[in-house]
């Protein structure tokens, strides 16, 4: 274990033998860090926090601090971070609250740039990219392969579906469906993330089906219920890529951007 002599590791912390911890970092008693993870200098990891394998956590991050929620009363809620994540400088991830599932969760293979804030009870999937200063309020859900542009801010309880993308300085106040690109304050839809889908191996036919679903939502003048019914019928015909829309419509809580 390569722990700098100035680092402070509380009794009870569970640190894998090959974890590296830099100068002046502080690791709390209820923290678990799995093998291959590197923690840079001046990092504070506290609370009931579990960090998986092969993560890189850069200097001045604060992970596992109590939520910025006046209702929090010291409950043993958690922060869970998966494997192979890069977390750059000055990021702040808070633990969950008893009013939700009690866990703030980050999946695997995420690229999280400097000054990103994840508030209590956020759920972040896999393979996401959060550019500098992206900010999630409490209870936000982010699907796999989402890209948040720099300075994107997301209102509490919003959901952003898989493969969606936001532009620089977007203010997201409602749910962003899968595959959709959004921009502006307040964020509005601006097409599908076709280039990203090509890079991830989606076929031309799949992208065409997704584009047609987007037209049902935003170009045909349909009500949301009418568009939902049309997309659900298309998904039932074997267009599996549209299943993400159907699942998203069943869980969205703040209404989709229109």
Automatic annotation (TrEMBL):
Pfam families: Acetyltransf_11 (PF13720), Hexapep (PF00132). Its main location: cytoplasm. It is an enzyme of class 2 (transferase). Pathway: Glycolipid biosynthesis; lipid IV(A) biosynthesis; lipid IV(A) from (3R)-3-hydroxytetradecanoyl-[acyl-carrier-protein] and UDP-N-acetyl-alpha-D-glucosamine: step 1/6. Residues 175-257 form the UDP N-acetylglucosamine O-acyltransferase C-terminal domain. Its EC number is 2.3.1.129. Keywords: Acyltransferase, Cytoplasm, Lipid A biosynthesis, Lipid biosynthesis, Lipid metabolism, Repeat, Transferase. Transmembrane segments: none annotated. Homotrimer. NCBIfam families: lipid_A_lpxA (TIGR01852), PRK05289.1 (NF003657). PANTHER family: ACYL-[ACYL-CARRIER-PROTEIN]--UDP-N-ACETYLGLUCOSAMINE O-ACYLTRANSFERASE, ACYL-[ACYL-CARRIER-PROTEIN]--UDP-N-ACETYLGLUCOSAMINE O-ACYLTRANSFERASE, MITOCHONDRIAL-RELATED. Involved in the biosynthesis of lipid A, a phosphorylated glycolipid that anchors the lipopolysaccharide to the outer membrane of the cell. Belongs to the transferase hexapeptide repeat family. LpxA subfamily. This is Acyl-[acyl-carrier-protein]--UDP-N-acetylglucosamine O-acyltransferase. The lineage of its organism: Bacteria, Pseudomonadati, Pseudomonadota, Betaproteobacteria, Neisseriales.
């Amino acid at each position: 274990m390569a722990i700098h002599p100035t680092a402070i590791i509380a009794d009870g912390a569970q640190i894998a033998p090959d974890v590296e911890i830099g100068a002046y970092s502080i690791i709390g008693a209820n923290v678990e860090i799995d093998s291959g993870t590197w923690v840079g200098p001046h990092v504070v990891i506290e609370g009931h926090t579990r960090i998986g394998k092969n993560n890189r956590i850069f200097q001045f991050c604060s992970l596992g601090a109590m939520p910025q929620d006046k209702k929090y009363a010291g409950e043993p809620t958690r922060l869970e971070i998966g494997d192979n994540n890069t977390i750059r400088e000055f990021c702040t991830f808070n633990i969950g609250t008893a009013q939700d599932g009690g866990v703030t969760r980050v999946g695997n293979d995420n690229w999280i740039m400097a000054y990103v804030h994840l508030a209590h009870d956020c759920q972040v999937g896999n393979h996401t990219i959060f550019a500098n200063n992206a900010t999630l309020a409490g209870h936000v859900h982010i699907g796999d392969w989402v890209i948040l542009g720099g300075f994107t801010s997301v209102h509490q309880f919003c959901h952003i579906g898989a493969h969606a993308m936001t532009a620089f300085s977007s203010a997201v106040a409602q749910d962003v469906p899968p595959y959709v690109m959004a921009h502006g304050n307040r964020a509005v839809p601006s097409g599908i993330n076709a280039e990203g889908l090509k890079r991830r191996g989606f076929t031309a036919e799949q992208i065409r089906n997704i584009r047609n679903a987007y037209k049902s939502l935003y170009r045909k003048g349909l009500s949301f219920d009418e568009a939902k019914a049309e997309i659900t019928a298309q998904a039932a015909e074997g267009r599996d890529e549209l299943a993400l829309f159907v699942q998203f419509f069943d869980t969205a809580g703040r209404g989709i951007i229109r």
